[in-house]
């Protein structure tokens, strides 16, 4: 199944109910997380998109299909923990290698700092995102089983990438409007 970044973002727009299981290997702890994720398109002319591109010295006209992701959920690990946030994501396709590029984020996944990740698509349409942070590295894979069901696998590794700290699996179901 052929996939490019524009199709991936278009397929991802909407509200998703997510059920994630995470194994925190360092703490020998299993965590169940339920959340609602909203993914909406953002105009390439949006100030946040332009500012994020400029912060990485990237021409904002290279941005395609920018989007905002907002999430809110709860975990069984710490019932008082507030699990919500929002980030802007800006894909910058590689102009020389098809189906590869950078994904700029104003807030990362493993560390809440701005992050520029490398992405590519596998032959079966899986989106692979590799992010290096100051103290960790993240590897995420997202694929669609059908238009309203997608899966996500995430690994948080040590900064050298030699050890896995957290492994998680998510199933995400799109919320459809009532008929």
From TrEMBL:
Annotated keywords: Lyase
Transmembrane segment boundaries: none
Uppermost EC category: lyase
UniProt record, GO biological process: protein-tetrapyrrole linkage
Pfam families, sorted: CpeS
GO molecular function, one term: lyase activity
CDD domains referenced in this protein's UniProt entry, alphabetically: lipocalin_CpcS-CpeS (cd19433)
Highest taxon, organism lineage: Bacteria
E.C. numbers: 4.-.-.-
Gene3D superfamilies from the UniProt entry: 2.40.128.20
Main function: Covalently attaches a chromophore to Cys residue(s) of phycobiliproteins.
Family note: Belongs to the CpcS/CpeS biliprotein lyase family.
HAMAP family given in the database record: Chrphore_lyase_CpxS
Protein name: Chromophore lyase CpcS/CpeS
């Amino acid at each position: 199944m052929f996939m490019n970044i524009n199709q991936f973002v278009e397929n991802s727009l909407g509200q998703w109910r997510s059920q994630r299981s995470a194994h925190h290997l360092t703490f020998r702890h299993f965590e169940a997380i339920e959340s609602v994720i909203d993914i909406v398109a953002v105009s390439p002319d949006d100030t946040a998109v332009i500012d994020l591109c400029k912060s990485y010295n990237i021409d904002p006209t290279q941005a395609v299909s920018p989007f905002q992701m907002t999430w809110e959920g709860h975990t069984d690990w710490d019932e008082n923990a507030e699990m919500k946030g929002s980030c802007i994501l800006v894909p910058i396709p590689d102009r020389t290698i098809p189906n590869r590029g950078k994904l700029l984020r104003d807030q990362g996944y493993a560390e809440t700092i701005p992050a520029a990740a490398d992405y590519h698509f596998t032959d079966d349409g899986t989106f692979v995102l590799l992010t290096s942070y100051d103290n960790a590295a993240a590897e995420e894979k997202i694929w669609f089983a059908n238009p309203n069901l997608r899966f996500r696998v995430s690994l948080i590794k040590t900064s050298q990438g030699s050890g896995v700290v957290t492994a998680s699996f998510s199933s995400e179901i799109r919320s459809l409007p009532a008929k």
